[in-house]
Structure formats: structure tokens, C-alpha cells
Design goal:
The protein is mainly α. The chain has helices spanning 6-12, 27-50, 79-91, 94-107, 119-133, 137-151, 177-191, 194-210, 247-264, 267-281, 308-321, 327-344, 379-394; strands spanning 56-61, 66-70, 154-155, 160-161, 171-174, 221-224, 231-235, 364-367, 372-376. Strand 6 and strand 7 form a beta hairpin. Belongs to the glycosyl hydrolase 88 family.
Length: 398
């Protein structure tokens, strides 16, 4: 396989560190977010006591006072160890670090799992963070094997990585896949093998052409003909209706094109990320506290449930994006991210220590149309909340 150029390898070494001048942030905000991170670490210590050794947390059933958990194979497996690693990084609590390592030992077999499109969530949120904190050849090998498994789902005719598995005549692609591309960019950075980078770019470009409407809102699902690459249908699975803007889907798009700009420096991706951000921030149905309803077009707004997970993902993406734009937009994006995090850090959204099954946030929405995980804690909401807080606190050092 062709080796990537020295210049491109250098570009891919760029991380999510802040590259533009940042606006001043008040000490009060830093103090609040510092408290939130430290109490989040205490909350996860509480969860550790309730969690079975070989299981991964997904949510919590309040009436039964029972954690809902999974094995290592679902898409959510990497969020718990990834969150623990962020909290260890911030607090230095080695108990959290060793808990993350124990869970990653169970998770590592998924590096060979070719039946899922979610290996970025599973393996990069966990092993990617672990390698960032303590670089090891074993972590890099797992990342490379995971990327190879993910790349096996790529179809050249379509120009995308397959989401889920279906009958041979349909090739499904969901907007969520954009975030999994980070794993492929990391694989090229580690190995110098440009094939992973090219797949990521091709997928991002195909998604940009077919998933987005003129206002920068996104369909959840696009179905292609696997033999011709032609679009068969555009629809939703988790949104209110096919033409609606499912909140977490918009968040995945924002996050995905922000990380693609970081990894390529292609201004097309920056333009797309800015367009999505502006669609979200200017939407008339975005509440004053900036935590979105589960769908921006849900029919019973303002009586619809909020989705803390979408809010946390948007906040994390905006913090990074604020470093890639001019000072005016940077201030605007960072201000909204701060507002989201202040809302999520309030008693309305953040659970008291020793409650909520050990989860940090309340009021997440998993799959509203299927009546699954509505107004409950969600492990991925916690992960992106922790990541966003961590990213924000790094501003203090600049």
C-alpha cells in the first residue's frame, strides 16, 4: 500500500488542541466545570461498586434501581472506559485508570469485529484515549486492527462504510458514521498507510453530497444501491420523520466534520461544520438553555423531551470548532458551548453523587420512535459531557 506523504503525516499529527486565539472565560465558569469534573469522578466511583466485572453500563432504570448493561459488542462499549480515562487525566485518580484498563481488556477482542460500523466509538474512545495518555505499541496495534475491520465495510461503488447489515440490494449509511472516521485517520497517523485516510475522506465527501439539505440539516439514513452507488431513499430511523432534524444526528454531523477538518485541513469540511453549527445555533426551536429537544422538528415542542446526549456532543464539537474559525465565530461557538455545559452541570441535568445509578447526566433520549431509553441517563451522554468539560478546562492553561 502506498505510504502517505510527509506533509500529510504532519497534518494528521495535529490533535484537537486549540489553534486560534480564545476569548476570555470567567473564573466562575472554570470553577463550576472543575467542580463538575471532580464530582463526576466521584460519581463513577459509585457506579464502579454497582457494575458487574464483565459488563458495560448503558443506562439505569430508576423504578427498579437497576443498571442496564451490555457486553463488549454493542456500540456503546467504549464510552465507559473512555470517560474514566478523561476523568483520570483530570483528577489523577488511579482507581479510575485501572477500572478503565480492566474494561478495555474485555473490549479488546472487538478489534476483529467486522459486523459493526461503530468501531470508532468502541475502540477509539477507549484505546485512542489510552494511547494518548500512555502511548503503547499494544494500543496502536489494536487501533490498526480495529481500523482494518472498519475498512472492510467500505464499498467503492457507494463511496461509504456500510451501517448495519441488510439485504444485498440495500447499502445503508447513517450520519453517525462520520464520528467513526476518527479511527481511520488515527490508523494512517500510526502506520503511514494512506488507504485508511482515503476511505475516511471518500466517506465524508459522499456523506456531504447526499446526507445534507441546503440548510445544512441532515437526514439520518441514506440507502444506496450497492452495485451502482445510486441513492435509493433518504429517511430517518430515530428522528421524528424523514425530513426532520433529529438532534443527535445533527450533533454527529457537526462533530464528524469538525474532526475531519482537524485531520485533513480541507476547508470544505470546515465550511460544512460551520454550516451545521449555524443551523443548530440559529434554529428557532433551540431552547434558551441550549440543550435541544430530541428532534428539532418534534411535533409537540415545547412538551417534547430534551436530549442531554445531543447537547453534550454539540458542546464538545463547538469547543474544538471554536479554535478553527475567526475570533468572532470562535467567541460565539464557545459561548454556546459554555451555556450548554452550565445547563448540563445544573441540578436539573446532573445527578447528585450516589444517585442515578452512578450515571452523571439525566434526561437523555435514545430512540424515541421505538420508545427506547427516553428521559434516562445514557453512557454516551456522560462521555461527551466529560470530554466537553475536559476540553473547556484546557482553555485555562492557554
Amino acid at each position: 500500500m502506498k505510504k502517505i506523504s510527509v506533509l500529510l503525516a504532519y497534518v494528521l499529527l495535529i490533535t484537537s488542541s486549540i489553534i486560534a486565539q480564545r476569548p476570555a472565560v470567567s473564573r466562575k465558569v472554570f470553577k463550576l466545570f472543575d467542580k463538575s469534573l471532580k464530582e463526576s469522578a466521584q460519581q463513577y466511583r459509585f457506579m464502579m461498586q454497582r457494575l458487574e466485572a464483565d459488563r458495560f453500563p448503558v443506562s439505569w432504570k430508576e423504578k427498579e434501581d437497576r443498571l442496564t448493561t451490555s457486553g463488549s459488542e454493542p456500540w456503546v462499549g467504549g464510552f465507559y472506559p473512555g470517560g474514566l480515562l478523561y476523568l483520570y487525566e483530570y483528577t489523577g485518580d488511579s482507581i479510575l485508570y485501572h477500572e478503565a484498563l480492566r474494561k478495555m481488556k474485555i473490549l479488546e477482542k472487538e478489534q476483529y469485529n467486522k459486523t459493526t460500523h461503530d468501531l470508532g466509538f468502541m475502540m477509539y474512545c477507549s484505546f485512542g484515549n489510552a494511547d494518548r495518555l500512555s502511548p503503547q505499541s499494544s494500543y496502536k496495534e489494536i487501533i490498526l486492527n480495529s481500523a482494518a475491520s472498519l475498512a472492510s465495510r467500505f464499498n467503492e461503488k457507494v463511496g461509504c462504510i456500510r451501517s448495519w447489515d441488510s439485504d444485498p440490494g440495500r447499502f445503508m449509511v447513517i450520519i453517525d458514521n462520520m464520528v467513526n472516521l476518527e479511527l481511520l485517520l488515527a490508523a494512517t497517523q500510526i502506520s503511514g498507510d494512506s488507504s485508511y485516510y482515503k476511505i475516511a475522506v471518500t466517506h465524508a465527501n459522499t456523506t456531504l453530497r447526499h446526507h445534507f439539505r441546503p440548510d445544512f440539516s441532515s437526514y439520518h439514513l441514506v440507502i444506496y444501491d450497492p452495485h451502482t452507488g445510486n441513492v435509493q431513499k433518504k429517511q430517518t430511523v430515530q428522528g421524528a420523520f424523514d425530513e426532520s432534524a433529529w438532534a443527535r444526528g445533527q450533533a454527529w454531523g457537526l462533530y464528524g466534520y469538525t474532526l475531519m477538518y482537524r485531520g485533513t485541513k480541507d476547508v470544505l469540511y470546515l465550511k460544512q461544520a460551520k454550516g451545521i453549527a449555524d443551523f443548530l445555533l440559529n434554529h428557532p426551536n433551540l431552547p434558551k438553555d441550549k440543550v435541544p429537544y430530541w428532534d428539532f422538528n418534534a411535533p409537540k415542542i415545547p412538551l417534547e423531551p430534551r436530549d442531554a446526549s445531543a447537547g453534550a456532543i454539540i458542546a464538545s464539537a463547538l469547543i474544538e470548532l471554536s479554535g478553527y474559525v475567526d475570533n468572532k465565530d470562535g467567541k460565539r461557538y464557545l459561548k454556546v458551548a459554555s451555556e450548554i455545559l452550565k445547563t448540563l452541570s445544573s441540578a436539573e441535568y446532573r445527578a447528585s453523587i450516589g444517585t442515578n445509578g452512578g450515571f452523571i447526566l439525566k434526561h437523555g433520549v435514545g430512540n424515541y420512535p421505538r420508545n427506547a431509553d427516553i428521559d434516562v441517563p445514557l453512557i454516551y451522554a456522560d462521555y461527551y459531557y466529560i470530554e466537553a468539560l475536559t476540553r473547556f478546562m484546557r482553555l485555562k492553561k492557554q
